[in-house]
Automatic annotation (TrEMBL):
This is Exodeoxyribonuclease 7 small subunit. GO terms for cellular component: cytosol; exodeoxyribonuclease VII complex. Heterooligomer composed of large and small subunits. Its EC number is 3.1.11.6. It comes from Neoroseomonas soli. Bidirectionally degrades single-stranded DNA into large acid-insoluble oligonucleotides, which are then degraded further into small acid-soluble oligonucleotides. Keywords: Cytoplasm, Exonuclease, Hydrolase, Nuclease. Gene3D superfamilies: Exonuclease VII, small subunit. GO terms for biological process: DNA catabolic process. The keyword tRNA-binding does not apply. It comes from the Bacteria. Its main location: cytoplasm. It is found in: Cytoplasm. The gene is xseB. GO terms for molecular function: exodeoxyribonuclease VII activity.
Length: 85
């Protein structure tokens, strides 16, 4: 059975190691499986919980990427990248 977050906002370590693309692909698979309506109730609930954790992970990865893009600033020498902490 898939591991689920123990607390609100906690992302399982196996999801933490996924790239954005890997997490999104797995999330898309879960959505398709849930939309088919063929799974057992318990399995569907577990899949939904994992999907929620994958969604949170993807959102965090997107926010991190957005911060990096926003760190590109225009100066006298043109566009530069400043460090984001």
């Amino acid at each position: 059975m898939a591991r689920t977050p123990k607390a609100e906002g906690e992302i399982p370590s196996d999801i933490e190691t996924l790239t954005f693309e890997q997490a999104l692909a797995e999330l898309e698979g879960i959505v398709k499986a849930l939309e088919s309506g063929q799974g057992a109730l318990e399995a569907s609930v577990a899949a939904y919980q994992r999907g929620a954790a994958l969604r949170a992970h993807c959102e965090r990865k997107l926010a991190e990427a957005e911060q990096k893009v926003q760190a590109i600033v225009e100066g006298p020498a043109g566009l530069t990248l400043r460090d984001v902490e």
